[in-house]
Write a structure and sequence with these properties.
By secondary structure, this protein is mainly α. The protein has one domain. The longest helix has 23 residues.
Length: 46
Amino acid sequence: MKSYKFVFFVLIVLVLGGFVVLKYIEMPAPHKVQIKILDVNDDAVK
């Protein structure tokens, strides 16, 4: 029974840690991402 409690505790810590990492990663909002269409004949691409 003691090993199940240890595994459960480790699992809870990993889930909470993953949530914190995903919550505070610098991810821009989808409407703020700039999509630039590349033209083959554009001088800025060359």
